[in-house]
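Deviations from the work plan: none for this task. Representative record:
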Amino acid sequence: MHSSEGVLAGENLRARVEALPAWYHTIDLAPGITTPGYFDLRGVVGRWPWPDLEGKRCLDVGTFDGFLAFEMERRGASEVVAIDLDDYLQLDWPADYRFSGPDDPRYREFLELAGPERGAGFRLAAEALGSRVERKVLSVYDLSPAEVGRFDFIVCGSLLLHLRDPIRALEAVRSVCAGLFLSSEPIDLWLSILGRRKPLARLDGSGVMCQWWVPNAAGHLRMLFSAGFAPERISKPYVVEYNRNPKPRLTLRRRGEYLIRRLIAGSGAPGVLHRAVLARPRL
Amino acid sequence: MTGAGSTTDLAAAVGRYPWYHTIDLGQGIVTPGMFDHRPVLGNYMLPPSLAGKRCLDVGTMDGFWAFEMERRGAAEVVAVDIEDPEALDWPASLRERTVKTLDETKGERFALVRDALGSRVQRELRSVYELGPDLGRFDFVFCGDLLVHLKDPITAAERIRSVCREAAVVCTPIVEVRFARGRALAELDGIDNFQWWAFTQPALERLLLAAGFGRVEGGRPFTLPATAGGPWKGLRGIARAMV
C-alpha cells in the first residue's frame, strides 16, 4: 500500500513537473524525477569554493527555480531566504525588448514560453523536496538590512549579466553580508585568456536574453572589488551545461572554443563558461 | 562698466578658482582649465548651426559646451549638473579621500562665465539619472566626458534618450583593446580613479542603441591634447545618435 501510494505521488509529481511550460534549473526532485531545466548545475556545484554552511543563515539572490537555495539547505544551513522578482516586467529589459505593459502582444507571446507564473517552479520544487526555504519577492537592488536582516552566507549565480547596473546590485548584496559571498558568473573565454590582467566586460543590451555586461575573469573580480568585496578563494573555470537549452550550431569557431574549454574547464559540452569567487566585504 | 577696472576684477575672480574648462571670456581673459576643447572642436560632431534649437548640456561643469551651443545660435540652452560633490558616483575606495574642490565651486564658476559672456543659458540642478520629460524635450542634447564617471552609464543614456527629440552627441574617454578590435567592450576601473566603465568606440555606439536611439553614427576617435586632464587626457570616442 505504501509503495502504491508512493508511485501515485510520483506520477502526480511527474505530471505537475511536465505541466509547467519552462524550467530554468535542472533539479532532482525524487528518484527518477528531474526537472527539465534549461541549465544543469548538478555537475559543477561541487567544484565551487563553498564554506561550511552548518547552522548558517543564508541568502540566495535571484533564485529562479531554487537550485542554489535547496543546495544550501542540503549543506546544513539553519535558515535560507531566496529572493526573486515575480513580475517579468520588472526585469532590466533592454530598450529593444521592453514590453509596453501587460497588454503588449509580445509580452503575451513571451509568457506563453516562460509561463504565466514566475515562482511556480520554485514552489513545486520546494514542495517536492519538503524544503523550508523562504521565497521572498524582492529585487537585488532593494536588498537592505532593514528589509531582510543580515546573512552569514550569500550566493548569487548567473544574475549579474542580466543587470544593467551590476555594481549597485553588488553593493546592495554587501549591505546585507555579515560573512561570505559566493558569486558564480559567466566569463568570456577569449577576453579572459587574452586580457588576463585587464578587467573587461562585453556590452550587449539587446534582445530576449536580457544580457548587459559579460565580464572576463578579471572583470568579474573587479566588479566584486569595486563594490567592496575582497576575494578569498577562486574556483577553476567550469561550464554550466545546457540541458533543455537548444544546442547552438557547431561552427568552426565554436568547436575551437569547446576544445579549449575542455582543457581549462573540464567540459567540452554546450553550455556557458563560468567562474565562482568566494569573497568577503572589505569595507 | 568699462576698461581696466572690470577686466582686472574679472581676471581676479577667475584667479580664485580651479578650472575644469578652458573658456575664452573675451578681453584677453581665458580660464585656465584642465581641459581645452578649442583646438579639437571640429571633432565633436556639433551641428555648425543650432539656430532655433532647444538644446541641453548634460553635466555642464564650467559650461563650455552650453555656451558653445548658445554661440551656434540655439534658441534656448539648458545646462544640468549636480551641486553636491557627495552625490557623484564615487567608487567606494575613493569617496573619503578624494579632494573635491573642483566639484565644490562649479556653480560659482558657471555663473561667473555666464555673466562675463552675457549668456542666457539656464543652469538646472539635476543628475543625468533624473532627466525626464518634465524638463521638456530637446532638439539637441550634448553629453561630454560624463559617462566614464558613472556607475550606471546605461540608465544615463536612457535618460538622455528620454528627453531627446532629434539628436544627441555623446563623447567620452575611450580605450582601445588591441586583441579585440571592433568589439563592444568596456574596461572597468571603480577603484583607483573616479572612473567606472571606459568604453571602446563600438561599445559607445552599442550603448546608445541599447538606450533606444534609432540610429547611431560613430565619429572618428581623437586625442584631446593634454592640458592638465589627469588620467582622462587622451583618447576620446564620439557618436551621434538619432531618435
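The CA atoms of residues 77 and 93 of chain A lie 33 Å apart.
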